[in-house]
Design a protein that fits this description.
- There is one protein chain.
- With about 230 residues, the chain is α/β, with parallel strands linked by helices.
- The protein has a single domain (about 5-215), classed as Alpha-Beta Barrel (TIM Barrel).
- About 40% of the residues lie in helices and about 20% in strands.
- The chain contains 8 helices and 8 strands.
- An 8-stranded parallel β-sheet has the order 7-6-5-4-3-2-1-8.
- Helix 3 links the parallel strand 2 and strand 3 (about 70).
Length: about 230
């Protein structure tokens, strides 16, 4: 087996159910990966892939088969039109301007777009997302729109060596998710955890993780999104 196949099988076999007995969905982060690398990961067992760049999504859309297609990166409003009707989930709904554009485009296309509400759980200026205290009400407002279906929440942990602090943030997000799920039975996902922290996130309640490096190895040299 190739290195990617080995990595995928190793990671998949090591992902347990979370402490709530829920299956944990692994989304392969495919930023700057070739079609061949992505397809190999899918053939090895990956069921969902997540793009960070709209240009890459467009270029590779017709060449990849066999996996759920998600968008996990920062999304500019002028590029929303390229994703409508083609994604199973947009994880990075981080501001009302984007809500308005996604809803408008979805209604116009006659589709309902599944989304996760992004929460800035670490209160970091460098990251987008709604404040924790407003996230539940925002999720309700967004879900009420004709073109959008809120399936849960997404968040990124800050960089910290304090596992107790990080664990508390995941548990806060889990409380938010549980509160929303009580109101909305279609909620399915709390997306938290990447290559460096997914085990902690799963341990404390995440049921969706976004992993790139652990599956594919070191990321290739960056190129500008068109």
């Amino acid at each position: 087996m190739s290195e990617i196949t080995n990595r995928v099988k190793e990671v998949l076999s090591s992902v347990p159910q979370n402490k709530y007995g829920e299956k944990v969905t692994l989304v392969a982060a495919v930023k700057f990966r070739t079609v061949e690398e992505i397809q190999e990961a899918i053939d090895a067992g990956i069921e969902a892939i997540g793009d960070n760049h709209v240009q890459e999504f467009k270029e590779k859309f017709d060449s990849i088969r066999g996996a759920s297609r998600q968008f996990i990166g920062h999304l500019q409003t002028n590029k929303v039109k390229y994703l409508i009707g083609k994604t199973d989930l947009i994880q990075s709904l981080d501001r009302m301007e984007l809500v308005e554009e996604l809803d408008k485009r979805s209604v116009r296309a006659g589709v309902v777009t599944n989304v996760l509400v992004q929460v800035n759980i670490g209160c970091e200026e460098s990251k987008g997302g709604f404040e924790y205290g407003e996230a539940l009400e925002r999720a309700r407002e967004i879900h009420a729109r004709a073109g959008l279906n809120v399936k849960g929440f997404m968040a990124m942990l800050p960089i910290s060596d304090d596992e107790g602090y990080l664990s508390s943030l995941v548990e806060k997000m889990r409380s938010l998710y549980d509160a929303y799920r009580e109101e909305n039975g279609s909620a399915e996902y709390l997306s938290m955890g990447m290559s460096g922290d997914w085990k902690l996130c799963v341990e404390h309640g995440s049921n969706m993780i976004r992993i790139g490096t652990a599956l594919f190895g070191a990321r290739p040299v960056a190129k500008k999104d068109g």
